[in-house]
């Protein structure tokens, strides 16, 4: 009886152990593929940022860049509108400047925030970099 149990248990245990080995290998392969995908995504992001930086560096020194023209398209009309609103309210002109429609008033606030907060912070960071003596005006 013992001999029969040993004979049955040997092949059965080998099958169970082989099954567990395959599961461990599959799990390891899955984790390796996940890590490879994450590394590929990081490399792609780094390459995209490198290309964006190259475009910014190529545009430096030129007044008519895509970013500057895009800003001017939004900032100049908003500046004229705000000037009209302020002049009309201070000097009581009869201009009756209309309020901006619903999405534009939120966008105007975001543009104003970007101009004074984000650009101001970027200027402050540049000033502190130059002040530290790095010599870079990035």
In words, what does this structure look like?
Helix content is 83%, strand content 0%. It has 138 residues and is an all-alpha fold. The model has no long low-confidence stretch (mean pLDDT 80).
Features:
single chain, 138 residues, 83% helix
Oligomeric state of the chains? single chain
Q: What order do the helices and strands follow?
A: HHH
Main pleated sheet: none
The average pLDDT value, as a whole number, equals 80
Straight-line distance between termini: 83 Å
Coarse structural class: mainly alpha
Helicity level, as a percent range? over 70%
- The low-confidence runs, each spanning 5 or more residues with pLDDT under 50, are none
Strand content: under 5%
Radius of gyration: 33 Å
Globular, elongated, flat, extended or rod-shaped: what is the shape? elongated
Count of DSSP strands: 0
The number of helical runs is 3
List the helices and strands and how they pair.
Blueprint lengths: L1 H58 L6 H26 L10 H30 L7
Short description:
This protein has three helices and no strands. By secondary structure, the protein is an all-alpha fold.
